Here is the input.
Amino acid sequence: MPLNHLPADFVWGASTASYQIEGATKEDGRGPSVWDTFTARPGVIRDGHTGDVACDHYHRYEEDLALMAEAGLTGYRFSIAWPRVQATGKGEVNPKGLDFYDRLVDGLLARGVEPFPTLFHWDLPQGLEDDGGWLNRDTAHRFAEYAALMAARLGDRVKHWITLNEPFIHMVWGYGLGTHAPGRALMTDCLPVAHHQLLGHGLALRELREHGLQVMIANNCTPVWPASQSPADLAAAEAYDNLHNRLFTDPLFTGAYPDLSAYGVDATLGGSVRDGDLDLISAPLDALGVNYYNPTRIQAPTAEGLPFEEAPIEGYRRTAFDWPVVPDGLRELLVLLKDRYPALPPVYITENGCSVNDVVTEDGTVPDHDRIDYLDTHLRAVDAAVAQGVDVRGYFTWTLMDNFEWAEGFHQRFGLVHVDHDTQVRTPKDSFAWYRDLIKAHRAKAQRT
Ligand code: IFM
Here is the structure.
């Protein structure tokens, strides 16, 4: 596959998240997270699955490190479980939790894999949720303290840090609709969660900088396609773009929130924004993490309530999750970000991948050709964006191994490695070998030129 525009030192990675893979939720001093509490509620997760064991990565991380080395990854994005490090999210530090991430980081470095930890991928300590979670401004300050202690512990070996994962998804699904933890259905009253997460990002960034570290945030971004050029559809698309994308990128790169009047909210986001907050949030970043899965088509609402309605995207193949496969949407998105923000820093694709109904065949292989095609076409889209002037430094596929897919339990398989959730047996899929060969070829070519 000709990927002629990617830089020689392009980072080839895979992403995971703590609650989705670690398990060991009650071991070695880990406190409860909002996801432990949420998954214990009957009926909220498909088939009642939980992350109690997940991929048992807490115990099997050596085996997983060996898989990363075999794939030839040069980067690994994982998240740190805040309640493993501080059981209640504040105060006392759990040495056994820190030791685990020490071992993981050392294991990565020993194998030539650069660690890219994310500080928050949704598993908030339940103790903080009891005080209001991200609706409470104080959580942003607790997050900065936690960032500081992680930087002090790992900053001698870990250069690249990601503050938050997908603050939009966490706000909407966790606090707006209630289909993710902490399960609150506040609709547009959830908007202060956006500001408090971004404030937490800004405060954490300041702490990480004290240690001379490189910082990014990973946003879920989607190109918004108006269903038609009618004024009503265009207005609805703009309102959706402001909520999904600009709410989380404008403050970073312009120091201001977008117009949210369509949601009945002014620029203070329900009185949450205080003097100086936006200066912290817009402090320069080393990179932006972009998580891309598909575009979103939007039409004018047909009922009272929100100022937009999602419309189907027809004419594309679909993943097992029923998400449309639109590789060029990734190129479109990257070019849009570059055009929209003159201050856009370099970009890493921090997530991209698809769920497939994978099975281990009788000969022990997992022929996931749809995933290979997905990765191939999306990487070509990244290459095309680089050719159009976007500075993309790396690609982390979602995900290393099949894991706990939130409200879907174990039903969606996104991994390069198949995991049997009864036995924990790991079986590399055909896409694993394909990715390994691609990385090898790209690195060999980079060395020749
Ligand atoms: O599994 C999730 C991940 O935790 C966040 N981004 C999207 C992935 C697939 O749904």
